[in-house]
Amino acid sequence: MKILILDIETSPHMGFHWGLFQQNISIGQLIESSTVLCWAAKWLDKKKTFFSSIYDTTPKKMIKEIHELINEADAIITYNGKRFDMPTLNKEFLIHKLPPPSSYKDIDLLTTARGKFRFASNKLDYVAQLLGIGMKTSHEGMPLWIECMAKNPKAWKLMKKYNIKNYIRYNQDVKTSIANLEGKMWDEYAREELIIKFLPLVENLARKFSSTQQASGVLSINDLIQDGNKGLVLAVDRLDWNMLGESEDIEKTLKSFFSKRIKGSIRRAIDINRGDIRIPEHLSLIHI
């Protein structure tokens, strides 16, 4: 499964107003609406960092670059991404006439922090420091954004550092979460945790398919893993927990259940890309 860690920074709305407190700003007072200034991204467990900004390239090219990365992702990790980062990017895709990206699993760590824990504050900086991950890059606040919009190179250097450091904390937080899965009871697993737990099974089955004549020259190992991941996600969504209650070995039962659907997803992808006429699985077992 390809998991993308992502963070964006945006410009403020600009407009005219009469006072400083409790102002209702009408559309007629708006001069310029907020846009994406920059973004930082990284594939989970990969070293390479991606960064793009309106300082280094055109807004359209910057948005196209992150659109391409999201298209490759099976899951995207953000902090407050469900309410901010992803809707903001979707707006930009629409403005720049880009099609909706491919479907992905939205993993918002702010939602996790609020739903699973009772921190004194759910702000990323507080949670990161509490977990010993680090702290946000210090800056002067709004003046940094103003200087970036004025194309100040020193301001952009600091903004890049600030933007990248945000997603580095996501990366460390995710690794901590995966390590914490060990020792958990099966009925304590969340949907996303169950998917992560069985990602090694997907890779193992995909590699076995890659060495067969059936897949040779049809799909790469990365394609096989991606299609296997789709099968795993569907299997988790269709899982009947009542079935597990009767099992003496829950992990073995889950592995068997997931393996069947992962293999089916990979076989379908191979058949579609090879151009063969596919016989449904339940019929292919009938001997004529």
How would you describe this structure in keywords?
288 residues, 5-stranded mixed sheet, Nucleotidyltransferase, domain 5, 52% helix, alpha/beta, single chain, disordered C terminus, two-stranded antiparallel ribbon, 12 helices, Rna Polymerase Sigma Factor, Chain: A, 11% strand, 2 domains
Task: Give structural notes.
This protein is α/β, with parallel strands linked by helices and 288 residues long. It folds into two domains: 3-12 and 33-179, Ribonuclease H-like superfamily/Ribonuclease H (Nucleotidyltransferase, domain 5, 2-Layer Sandwich); 186-284, Orthogonal Bundle (Rna Polymerase Sigma Factor, Chain: A), CATH 1.10.1740. 52% of the residues lie in helices and 11% in strands. The protein is built from twelve helices and seven strands. It has helices spanning 59-72, 81-95, 109-116, 124-130, 142-149, 153-179, 191-197, 199-210, 221-237, 241-245, 250-274, 281-284, and strands at 3-10, 14-15, 30-32, 36-43, 50-53, 75-78, 105-108. Strands 5-4-1-6-7 form a five-stranded mixed beta sheet, with helices on both faces. Strand 4 and strand 5 form a beta hairpin. Helix 9 (221-237) crosses helix 11 (250-274). The longest helix has 27 residues, at 153-179. The two termini are 38 Å apart. The relative contact order is 0.10. Residues 284-288 have low confidence and may be disordered.
